[in-house]
Amino acid sequence: MIRYRKINGEFLLSQRLLIIAPHMDDEILGCGGSILLHEDKSQIHCVYATDGSRSPAPLLPWTGSIDSNIVEIRRREALRVMQEVGVPQENLVFMNFPDGALSRNIREFRSRLGDEIARIDPSIVLAPFRYDLHSDHVAANRCARAILSRENRDRSLLEYIVYYRWRLIGSGDVRSMIPASKFLTINTKSVAARKSSAIRRYRSQTETPSDWQDQPILTAKNIADRCGEDESFLLSNPNEPLSQVFGKNRYRVVTAYFLQRVGKRRKDQLVAFLKWLSQFRGKNDA
Question: Is the distance from CB of 130 to CB of 141 less than 8 angstroms?
């Protein structure tokens, strides 16, 4: 049975790490400061699960199209970002599963990820938060948990938390529902400017390269939020139910999660449609 240790910041920043990034930019958003503070960047590895082919993509298909070169663009961006933060190129693995469809390729992804974990043999695996709002992030988390739950190794799993502001949680912050004994923060303020610089290397996400875009995927506020606060991690036990960590708050968290996950994209699409409709009527009236 896998053994779990209490992880502190000093331990995290000195160990062999494997970061599971569903998309190019997740690794730097969730773990960029910790990467920069790590004692030995050659001990950091990253698996990019998808090809990033659906970001940026229009919410309404008739308003624009995806750049035909976006897969290669995002791959080049990831290589530049990781070079800037000091992670060797040979430590990066691009699995190229279709963006947005990781759950439909779950068996192959789990098999390939298991092979990479065995090959790299990290002390700590970092995966997206269990209740993230993107299906690819959820699939990556579930696969990591499934693989590590079957291992008989002294290996730990941390879930990195990027988007923690939940309107349907009383405090507005899902991290407040995590017991202190399962919660780890890394003070990354000393490298905040360098993390911000690295994020901005993802120009496809931080600028508006398509004429149909009103704003970038990652706005200046998004970047400031991600770089101005400590990085947050949940110490994960793959052998316990997902909601167990939240104790008496688990039903509230699970309910809020499903409501937000179902509602967010539909809300965004409705807003985009109303905006398009207003512009369409304005052109006809003119």
Answer: yes
Q: Is 9-285 a CATH 3.40.50.10320 domain?
A: yes
SS3 of residue 14 by DSSP: coil
**Separation of alpha carbons 70 and 49, rounded Å:** 15
Cβ proximity of 233 and 197 under 8 Å:
no
What is the structure's pLDDT at 286?
62
Write out pLDDT tens, residues 11-55.
999 999 999 999 999 999 999 999 999 999 999 999 999 999 999
SS3 assignment, position 276 = helix
What are the start-end ranges of the H helices in the chain? 9-12, 26-37, 70-85, 106-120, 135-149, 192-199, 203-206, 220-228, 250-285
Residues of the chain scoring pLDDT < 50: 1-4
Write down how long the chain is.
286
pLDDT in tens, 64-95: 899 999 999 999 999 999 999 999 999 999 99
Provide the b/e sequence for 35-57 (b: ≥16 CB within 10 Å).
Answer: bbbbeeeebbbbbbbbbbbebbb
- The pTM of this model reads 0.94
How do the domains of the chain map onto residue ranges?
A: 9-285
Contact criterion met (CB below 8 Å) for 14 and 62: no
Q: Which residues sit opposite 185 in a β-bridge?
A: 232
Question: Are 217 and 55 a contacting pair, CB within 8 Å?
Answer: yes
Residue 257's pLDDT is: 92
- The residue among 124, 195, 109 whose CA lies nearest residue 159 is 124
